[in-house]
Amino acid sequence: MVQSTPSPDTTGTLARRGLMFILSSPSGAGKTTIARMLLEHDPQLRNSVSCTTRQPRPGEIDGEHYHFITHEQFDAMVEAGEFLEWATVFGQSYGTPKAQVKAGLKDGVDYMFDIDWQGTQQLYQKLERDVVRVFLLPPSIEELRRRLTGRGTDSAEVIHGRMERARSEISHWDGYDYVVVNDDIASCFEEVKKILHAERLRRARQTGLIGFVRELMQPDD
Ligand SMILES: Nc1ncnc2c1ncn2[C@@H]1O[C@H](COP(=O)(O)OP(=O)(O)OP(=O)(O)O)[C@@H](O)[C@H]1O
Ligand SMILES: Nc1nc2c(ncn2[C@@H]2O[C@H](COP(=O)(O)O)[C@@H](O)[C@H]2O)c(=O)[nH]1
Where does ATP bind (predicted)? Predict the structure, then answer.
């Protein structure tokens, strides 16, 4: 009998369940920059667009960078259980809508989350096996201040608040699987890409290979 050669789905798109790739850092360390680079580079990765009650920054587009909603709308969504996680950060509400992500994961879509440590803990408690937690550190506190100031999007008061909070955010670094120092942006991007690549190859995620592996293990006739 001629046996067909088993062939795995090497694209990895439908061969496994999607993963939830979380990037956190103190404000200004560069997670949004790295997240945007990854999304541009990797068509398999989709952005999880959060809802927030904060005002848009110049250049931010509703529905693309955030869903900008009112406090009343946010509270109604909390009440209706429409968030996978939500938290108050810098006096504003932020949350991850459930609907898009849950359906996508089943179809093998990988999602990028730019969220804080509180949201990370909530996602980990709910969906531990799908979550990959990456924490970015700034090369120094002075550089963090320079980046927040240089971004030119926040008032001196807001920057002061974010710097005040940076140390307590950094103290949550031990709740993450990977830690990368974002000194040189290109090197940081490379490191984060490698983490994503390796996580996609985790055996536990490769459910689509089960049939292929069984065939490989068949005894010779
Ligand atoms: N490695 C780097 N070297 C120099 N500048 C950087 C680097 N990474 C990011 N930046 C710059 O630092 C500023 C802050 O970056 P970004 O907005 O990505 O931070 P963030 O962690 O997402 O902050 P937030 O939590 O407030 O949204 C931006 O102006 C960005 O261009
Ligand atoms: N728990 C969540 N945190 C979120 C979410 N979306 C963003 N964030 C975090 O908020 C701060 C501030 O963000 P900014 O865009 O106003 O500078 C930052 O740490 C983000 O990671 C979310 O849906 N849930």
Answer: 25-32
In terms of CATH, what superfamily is 20-47+111-216?
Answer: P-loop containing nucleotide triphosphate hydrolases (3.40.50.300)
Q: What are phi and psi of 111, to 5 degrees?
A: -115, 140
Which ipTM value was assigned to this complex? Answer: 0.97
| pTM for the predicted model, two decimal places | 0.92
- Check the annotation: does 48 bind a ligand: no
Ligand 2 pocket mutation, candidates 23, 49, 50, 53, criterion most atoms within 8 A of CB: 50
Give me the sign of the Cα torsion angle 72, 73, 74, 78: positive
Domain boundaries, the chain: 20-47+111-216
What does the pLDDT look like over 74-117, one tens digit per residue? 999 999 999 999 999 989 999 999 988 988 888 889 999 999 99
Query: What is the side-by-side order of every strand in the sheet holding 92-97?
Result: 67-68, 51-52, 92-97, 83-89
Nearest CA-CA partner of 116 in 70, 62, 54: 54
For residue 3, pLDDT beyond 50: no
The answer to the question of whether 12 is labelled as a binding residue is: no
Ligand 2 center from residue 33 Cα (angstroms): 13
